[in-house]
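The instructor's notes for this session suggest beginning with a concrete chain rather than abstract definitions. Hand out the sequence below and ask the class to guess, before any prediction is shown, which regions might be ordered.
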Amino acid sequence: MCYGKCARCIGQSLVPLAILCIVANILLYFPNGETKYAREGHLSKFVWFFSGVVGGGFLIFLPAFVFIALEQDEWGRDNCGKRCAMLSSVLAALIGIVGSGYCAIGAALGLATGPLCLDSSNQWNYTFLDTGGQYLLDRSTWSECIEPKHAVEWNVSLFSILLALSGLEFVLCLVQVINGMLGGMCGYCCTHHQQYDC
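After discussion, reveal the predicted structure:
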C-alpha cells in the first residue's frame, strides 16, 4: 500500500468538504436569502462564531493541501525525506481535527439553542433555548418563530449540514493521523520500487 496515495486521496476529499462548510456557514447569514437580519443583528450567536468558515473551511484547507502535496517530488526522492514528510503530515491532520471539531461544536450548539427569531410576543429571542434541543423532534412548535419565515428549517438544515460535513472531515483527518504514522514508521511505500511508482 502506498501511504502517499492514501494521503492524496484524503486531501482531495477534504477540499470539497471544506468548500461546502464555507458555503453552508455563509448561507446562515441570509435566512430566506434576505440580508436585513444580518444587518439588524437578528441571527443566532452561533452563526457569528464562523465555525463553518474558519473551522470546517480554512483550517481544513491547510491539511488538505499538505496531504495532496505529499505525493509530489518536492518532498525529496529519498525514502527518509518522504518518511519525515509523512510524519509531519500528522501535525497537519491534528490541525484539521481541531478545525473540524470547532465546526462540529459550533453546529451542535447552534442546533441545541435554536434560531434567534421574533416570537408571538413580538420579542427577538431564542424561543427554543429551554427545550434542550427537543424542539428538533417536534415540528409543530416551529411555527412559534414568526420571523424570519422558516427560520427554524433554515437553521436546522444548515447547522445539520455543518455537523455532518465536520464529522466527515474529523474522520478523514483521524485516518490521516494513522496513515501518516504508519507511513513515517514503515516507509513511504512498502518497497523501494513502489516508492517511485506512487
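Then share the key points. The chain has one domain: 2-38+47-73+82-194. The first helix runs from residue 3 to 27.
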